[in-house]
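Quick one, probably user error.
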């Protein structure tokens, strides 16, 4: 808030334009009402001084108008629990109007702004991590900032965002996101979570012939839809996570529902040479394989699928997993998502006992260990990618190697305008 600063010597001057078409002319206006009481002058010092604004802000963002000061005081009236600190985040547009229903992550918890554009939280240690998602169509998507607030104190901080003429954002959190009214259409890419790798200790006997087929997870499905008309409102988003039971990603926008399912988890199959199964399927399928010819000791493992393809099947005991057939690239032509993880065939009686397949782009490799060594599966490296298998082979129960599966890539919802 600032006082008007006229050019020296031109205080009170106004420009008068007659309605009859006569040339405009300057005049000086002065009060001539011979007041009994001149009253309080209307200026910054009498409405909201810098000192008062700073006191209200208590080290945060000072209010710029009397209205903002009153709004700020309203948010400060509530009690702060003993031993806690409170942060108040206010989200405003370019005209400093509050943005309601903006998503603010405060120390990892989603809080929606109220009608004043305010989201707040308390914390015992006074440390606050803020991540802002004002809405689809606004600037500074995912902006992060750290704040330290003394115990027993309250601080308010403003985040001012602007309309973004174009944008390409990645949503990783399940929430409802406001859509700015200046956007008329969007493109959407929805990616389901990738399947996790197998995680198993496999007990075998040295005097028996066997084949083991082990594999990681299939890629999550990918759904693209372009030129979706929008006119404000909200985008309702569910993001599939490989670490939960919710693997499918869903976008509800402008009356449409776009769903991309998660990929299947990996598995381990063992036994004699008569295995018969199908590798995991998803957006991209896991490669198949196994023993092709016992007499020639021919074993092969197919590569995991990528860009929507089936896994490769060179022959053998396990058929390849199916892919979704159409592309898993963002918006059809962009980044490649959801590659399938690799498979592994391990046999006892063959000269080469381990045979590794290759993952699809972004999927994880296969890993195994023997006896007392732990096995840590590899995580997928792209959204929707398949996680890697972790196999520990032991010949008796006294061996203590432990498997830890690789995790599939979490899903995402990507929106551009």
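Nope, works fine. Designed sequence:
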């Amino acid at each position: 808030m600032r006082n008007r600063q006229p050019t020296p010597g031109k205080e009170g001057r106004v420009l008068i334009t007659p309605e009859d078409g006569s040339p405009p002319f300057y005049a000086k206006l002065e009060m001539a009402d011979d007041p009994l009481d001149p009253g309080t002058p209307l200026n910054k010092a009498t409405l909201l001084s810098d000192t008062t604004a700073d006191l209200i802000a208590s080290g945060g963002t000072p209010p710029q108008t009397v209205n903002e000061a009153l709004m700020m005081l309203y948010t400060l009236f509530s009690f702060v629990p003993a031993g806690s600190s409170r942060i108040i985040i206010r989200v405003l547009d370019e005209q400093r109007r509050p943005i309601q229903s903006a998503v603010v992550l405060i120390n990892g918890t989603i809080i929606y702004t109220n009608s004043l554009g305010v989201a707040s939280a308390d914390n015992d240690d006074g440390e606050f991590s803020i991540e802002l998602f004002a809405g689809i169509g606004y600037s500074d998507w995912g902006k992060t900032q750290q704040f330290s607030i003394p115990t027993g104190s309250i601080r308010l901080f403003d985040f001012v965002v602007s309309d973004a003429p174009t944008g390409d954002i990645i949503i990783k959190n399940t929430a409802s996101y406001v859509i700015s009214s200046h956007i008329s259409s969007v493109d959407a890419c929805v990616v389901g979570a990738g399947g996790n790798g197998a995680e198993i200790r496999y007990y075998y006997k040295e005097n028996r012939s066997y084949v083991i087929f082990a594999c990681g997870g299939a890629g999550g499905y990918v759904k693209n839809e372009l030129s979706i008309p929008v006119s404000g409102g909200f985008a309702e988003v569910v993001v599939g996570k490989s670490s939960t039971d919710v693997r499918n990603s869903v976008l509800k926008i402008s009356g449409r529902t776009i769903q991309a399912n998660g990929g299947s988890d990996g598995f381990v199959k063992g036994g004699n040479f008569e295995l018969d199964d199908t590798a995991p399927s998803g957006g991209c399928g896991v490669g198949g394989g196994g023993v092709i010819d016992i007499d020639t000791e021919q074993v092969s493992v197919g590569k995991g699928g990528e860009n929507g393809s089936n896994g490769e099947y060179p022959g053998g005991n396990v058929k390849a997993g199916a892919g979704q057939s159409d592309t898993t690239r963002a918006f059809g032509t962009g980044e490649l998502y959801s590659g399938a993880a690799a498979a592994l065939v391990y046999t006892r009686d063959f000269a080469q006992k381990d045979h590794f397949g290759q993952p699809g782009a972004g999927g994880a490799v296969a890993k195994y260990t023997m006896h007392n060594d732990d096995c840590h599966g590899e995580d997928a490296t792209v959204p929707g990618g398949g996680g890697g298998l972790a196999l520990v082979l032991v010949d008796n129960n006294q061996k203590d190697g432990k498997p830890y599966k690789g995790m599939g890539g979490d899903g995402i919802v990507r929106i551009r305008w």
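Helices lie at 44-47, 50-57, 66-76.
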